[in-house]
Amino acid sequence: MGSSEFVGYCSFTKAIEHLGDRWSLLIVRELGVVGPQGFNDLATGLPGRISRSVLADRLRRLETLGLVSRGEGPEARPAYRLTAVGDGLMATLGSLRVWADTWLPDDPGMLDRDPDIVLGWLAQRVDPGRAPERPVVLELRLHHRYDRRYWLVLQRGVEPYGCLTDPLLDASRYVYLESSLPALLALARGRCGWSDAFGDGSVTAAGDPDLLGRVTDWFRPVSDPPCAVVAVQDATTAHGRVSAPRRSAADAGARPRS
């Protein structure tokens, strides 16, 4: 490791050592967004439950680091406020929030609880004009849940639809995908492109090489809005298929497992 890389690494570890607990950055953000606050206001305003002893300890540490100072606030009461050093963290916290909004799921259990909604989002990202002429089934698994599988059926001229059980179509027309949950939700919401997901390894694929090479073509670019006419998240039939309005007669050939 070069000397410049070592210096950067040490700076990063110092930041994590001093600010990497659950509460310190939340306190900085609260003071940066709301402004000067008294101890009691901070204790009740922070998200979650922080004990008074922990809050007092974190404020002392932030004062020692020079991020927070204590002085007279509104109505002549003692209040904590950010210093110029603490205010310099706000842009970084803003970037961290944007990253979290994009990549970290709000609810990790969503796919288990409401898989039809996620399949509906994925269906809305399909480009109808570039879907395969013959039906293709994308079988989805999560890295940490090998016991759960979900299916998305694509065919040109037919609205894409999701299945909660195997649609039992031609086995040669299956593409098998494994994904992390954050990557799958980012793809479903149009925050990440398939080429990027394959490139960084967050999604892996197996199946017919010709089909594998065309997966990225079947979906809209990240900059495009979702397809407004596709709505696959409405309900689930007794056969495990996620329903979509205006289904064409070509769907009748699918044989969902009961």
Fold topology:
Elements: H1 3-19, H2 24-34, H3 39-45, H4 52-65, E1 68-72, E2 78-82, H5 84-87, H6 90-103, H7 110-113, H8 115-124, E3 136-142, E4 145-155, E5 158-163, E6 174-179, H9 181-188, H10 194-199, E7 203-207, H11 209-212
Parallel strand pairs: 3-6
Antiparallel strand pairs: 1-2, 3-4, 4-5, 6-7
Instruction: Report the helical percentage.
Output: 25-40%
The main sheet orders its strands as 5-4-3-6-7
Number of strands: 7
Rounded mean pLDDT is 82
The unreliable regions are 228-258
Whole-angstrom Rg? 25 Å
Shape: elongated
> What characterizes the major β-sheet?
5 strands, mixed
Q: Would you tell me the structural class of the helices and strands? A: alpha+beta
H/E order of the elements? HHHHEEHHHHEEEEHHEH
Gap from first CA to last CA: 58 Å
How many helices?
A: 11
Query: Strand share of the residues?
Result: 15-25%
Description of the molecule:
The structure is a single chain. This protein has 258 residues and is of the alpha+beta class. A five-stranded mixed β-sheet has the order 5-4-3-6-7. A two-stranded antiparallel sheet has the order 1-2. The C terminus is likely disordered.
